[in-house]
């Protein structure tokens, strides 16, 4: 081999080595750019938030075992229990009293004992009743105490209990036995022998305390689609109030505008030719109204949100922290999401922020629709928050949290991945300015928000519950409604109560009203309520006395009594309403948080209605009361089945007590009227169907706290805006190389049904 050849090969080898070194150096730099960085750590100890934590599955099982061994009465598992049996209806955490918790969190006091609240149905007693026990201490229960009378002022009658799954099963069996008495009618009206018909419950159940009589609406059942849009015109009234199932009866039948005493009566009149029948065909799966199956092949993927260096928030147990925010989160199986000890920059702003109730009130010219006033807490807003679909219900890379509950069973159940937490880039500036005069610069900050979300499926409707925490210290609470509309069979003057959305389907008008509890602690527990609004004054121009000017001025007012702070639904309300501290900020204004409500609520039930007091929280878009341990919730799961003698009456909370320098609670109602229309088919979209409220700092700080955000952007005309060191936005091109390896899609939400 010649010397020349050797030198050439040596040169090639050196070039190859140099290239490999460059590649290796580049590869070594890439992980440094894309490596996951630990989120900011807050000063609050994670284990302190456990004072609010939901029960673990093991704790629930311990409570069940304790009750089975210490009550001295036979207990039947609720999923098998008859009304004449005793059973454990539910077990949830008993959140300690606020004073105890604050002594522990703020005063160095002892951790409050961990306790559970167990609800039992005692049907096998001389006087059947509902009893609530506090059981503790966990994890090794040693005592139980009956708190029913203390909480409600007396025993809770047995007829107020929510309907169990076993009770619905027995009702359906009764209905289908009765349908067999009208075989010719069913064939004519519905191409059915009854086996392909399903029922939908209504509520409440009767007209007076003690009633347990329910209208059930019948629909064609089509696998893989929402049956709620396929009514057949048949509705039945079932009396299921007796403790013995064998004594339950079908009281009335409704079909196409007429009432009959029984299915046998309906059959007899049909055979005699006295019934006008609308002949329906069994819907086909490929042509049914409610099908959500895609009609087009998949297109190209849409935008995907991801965190180049991993999540910037931290979740541990029931505690999440994010850029100065600290929140303890949980889920009540009845009332749904609840948050506690919400702090920003180390200061508690909200002690409790929790959903209380969701009301859906319908109109129709059919008995089932016209009598429906669903109080969803009695069905289980938290219990029916199922697994979330990653990439659609929440971002694909969100953090998903399992929730446990025990209801109508002696064994805890788990709704996997039923709560999600994520940072959301809203693609909107939180604030910005482009300067085009004097000096030229741009300054801004992206609106990135921490979101805690869960979604409840309550029969036909899906409610998306969002709690959002912004970089300027504001909290946003929002609910969106989607899912299927409920419908009635279209007949007569049906369009007085909605719109026709199918050949025989009336989309029935209804309202959604949602109630929240907000226990604000603004710069301490003791707050007052202040309103501000504008007025005009007519004054002589100081520089031109012959002319006048209309000058707006600010009218401030301190509200001193609860009656002043109860603002009727849909009535004008001060545009600025704030919880104020007695401490000033730097500019001598009281440190405050403003409540700003975004709502399109329908009309509240008239106060002369026999059941109005059970939902009297709906009278007010906002009511501020003194906080009391004996007023923990605005309603009760027992109000649904006895709204005529409500177990909890919110209107009684408002008794004109002083609200100056007191621990105060804001009770907020939001909602909207929904008149279903053609575009609600196949189901309702979230666009325009979202309501909620903001809790915004108002002179709480000395300036906008987001100025300290590390996400801030500023560059001037004198800078190289393409330099990563001068402009963080110039660094994004390298960040795109950090796209995460997404885990395989998985969904197990059908396994626990």
Automatic annotation (TrEMBL):
Gene Ontology, cellular component aspect: plasma membrane
Family, per entry: Belongs to the copper/topaquinone oxidase family.
Identify the residues that the record assigns to the Copper amine oxidase N2-terminal domain, covering every copy: 75-143
EC assignment: the record states 1.4.3.-
Query: What cofactor is needed?
Result: Cu cation
Query: Per its UniProt record, what SUPFAM superfamilies does this chain match?
Result: Amine oxidase catalytic domain, Amine oxidase N-terminal region
What is the name of this protein? Answer: Amine oxidase
Say which domain of life the source belongs to.
Eukaryota
Annotated organism of origin: Sylvia borin
The UniProt entry, under InterPro entries, shows: Cu_Am_Ox_Cu-bd, Cu_Am_ox_TPQ-bd, Cu_amine_oxidase, Cu_amine_oxidase_C, Cu_amine_oxidase_C_sf, Cu_amine_oxidase_N-reg, Cu_amine_oxidase_N2, Cu_amine_oxidase_N3
Which EC class, in a word?
Answer: oxidoreductase
Q: Which PANTHER family match?
A: COPPER AMINE OXIDASE, RETINA-SPECIFIC COPPER AMINE OXIDASE
Residues with the 2',4',5'-topaquinone modification:
461
A Pfam family matched by this chain, by name? Cu_amine_oxidN2
Q: Which UniProt keywords apply?
A: Copper, Metal-binding, Oxidoreductase, TPQ
Mention one GO biological process in which this protein takes part, according to its record: amine metabolic process
Query: Which residues are named in the active-site annotation?
Result: 376 (proton acceptor), 461 (schiff-base intermediate with substrate)
PROSITE patterns in the cross-refs: COPPER_AMINE_OXID_1, COPPER_AMINE_OXID_2
> Cofactor comment in the record?
Contains 1 topaquinone per subunit.
After translation, the protein is modified as follows:
Topaquinone (TPQ) is generated by copper-dependent autoxidation of a specific tyrosyl residue.
Spell out the molecular function terms from Gene Ontology. Answer: copper ion binding; primary methylamine oxidase activity; quinone binding
Q: Where does the Copper amine oxidase N3-terminal domain start and stop, copy by copy?
A: 161-258
Locate the Copper amine oxidase catalytic domain: which residues?
305-706
């Amino acid at each position: 081999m010649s010397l020349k050849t050797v030198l050439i090969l040596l040169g090639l080898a050196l070039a190859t080595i140099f290239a490999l070194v460059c590649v290796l150096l580049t590869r070594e730099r890439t992980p440094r750019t894309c490596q996951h960085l630990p989120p900011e750590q807050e000063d609050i100890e994670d284990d302190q938030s456990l004072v609010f934590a939901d029960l673990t599955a093991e704790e629930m099982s311990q409570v069940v075992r304790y009750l089975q061994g210490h009550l001295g009465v036979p207990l039947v598992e609720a999923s098998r229990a008859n009304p004449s049996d005793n059973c454990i209806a539910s077990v949830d955490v008993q959140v300690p009293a606020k004073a105890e918790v604050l002594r522990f969190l703020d005063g160095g006091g002892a951790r409050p004992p961990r306790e559970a609240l167990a609800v039992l149905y005692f049907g096998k007693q001389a006087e059947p009743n509902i009893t609530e026990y506090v059981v503790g201490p966990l994890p090794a229960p040693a005592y139980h105490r009956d708190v029913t009378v203390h909480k409600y002022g007396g025993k809770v009658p047995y007829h107020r209990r929510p309907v169990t799954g076993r009770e619905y099963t027995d009702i359906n069996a009764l209905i289908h036995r009765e349908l067999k008495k009208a075989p010719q009618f069913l064939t004519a009206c519905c191409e059915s022998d009854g086996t392909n018909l399903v029922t939908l419950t209504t509520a409440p159940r009767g007209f007076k305390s003690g009633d347990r009589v329910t209208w059930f609406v019948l629909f064609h059942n089509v696998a893989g689609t929402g049956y709620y849009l396929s009514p057949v015109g048949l509705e039945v009234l079932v009396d299921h109030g007796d403790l013995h199932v064998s004594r339950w009866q079908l009281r009335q039948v409704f079909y196409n505008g007429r009432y009959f005493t029984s299915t046998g009566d309906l059959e007899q009149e049909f055979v005699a030719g006295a019934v006008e029948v609308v002949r329906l065909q069994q819907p086909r799966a490929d042509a049914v109204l409610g099908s959500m199956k895609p009609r087009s092949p998949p297109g190209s993927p849409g935008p995907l949100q991801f965190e180049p260096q991993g999540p910037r928030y931290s979740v541990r147990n029931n505690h999440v922290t994010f850029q100065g925010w600290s929140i303890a989160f949980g889920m009540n199986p009845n009332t749904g999401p609840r948050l506690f000890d919400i702090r920003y920059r180390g200061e508690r702003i909200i002690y409790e922020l929790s959903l209380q109730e969701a009301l859906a009130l319908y109109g129709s010219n059919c008995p089932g629709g016209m009598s429906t006033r669903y109080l969803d807490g009695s069905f289980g807003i938290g219990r029916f928050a199922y697994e979330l679909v990653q990439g659609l219900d929440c971002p694909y890379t969100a953090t998903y949290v399992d929730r446990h509950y025990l209801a109508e069973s002696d064994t805890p159940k788990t709704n996997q991945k039923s709560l999600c937490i994520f940072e959301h880039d809203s693609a909107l500036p939180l604030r910005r300015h482009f300067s085009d005069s004097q000096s030229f610069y741009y300054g801004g900050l992206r609106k990135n928000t921490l979101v805690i979300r869960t979604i409840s499926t309550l029969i036909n409707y899906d409610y998306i519950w969002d709690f959002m925490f912004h970089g300027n210290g504001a909290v946003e609470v929002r609910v969106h409604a989607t899912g299927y509309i409920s419908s009635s069979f279209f007949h007569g003057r049906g369009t007085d109560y909605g719109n026709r959305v199918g050949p025989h389907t009336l989309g029935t008008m209804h309202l959604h009203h949602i109630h929240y509890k907000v226990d604000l602690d603004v710069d301490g527990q003791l707050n007052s309520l202040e309103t501000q609004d504008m007025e005009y004054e007519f004054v002589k121009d100081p520089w031109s006395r012959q002319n006048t000017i209309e000058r707006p001025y600010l009218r401030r007012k301190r509200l001193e009594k609860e009656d002043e702070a109860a603002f009727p639904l849909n009535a004008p309300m001060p545009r600025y309403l704030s919880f104020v501290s007695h401490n000033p900020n730097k500019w001598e204004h009281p440190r405050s948080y403003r409540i700003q409500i975004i709502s399109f609520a329908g009309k509240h039930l008239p106060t002369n209605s026999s059941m109005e007091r059970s939902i009297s929280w709906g009278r007010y878009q906002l009511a501020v009361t003194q906080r009391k341990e004996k007023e923990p919730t605005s309603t009760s799961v027992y109000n649904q089945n006895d709204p005529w003698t409500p177990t909890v009456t919110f209107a009684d909370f408002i008794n004109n007590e002083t609200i100056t320098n007191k621990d105060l609670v804001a009770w907020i109602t939001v909602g909207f009227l929904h008149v279903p229309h053609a575009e609600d088919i196949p189901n309702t979209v979230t666009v325009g169907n979202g309501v909620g409220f903001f809790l915004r700092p108002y002179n709480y700080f000395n300036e906008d706290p987001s100025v300290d955000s590390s996400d801030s952007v500023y560059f001037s005309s004198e800078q190289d805006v393409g330099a990563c060191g001068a402009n963080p936005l110039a660094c994004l091109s390298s960040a795109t190389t950090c796209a995460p390896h997404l885990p395989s899609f998985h969904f197990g939400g059908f396994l626990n049904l």
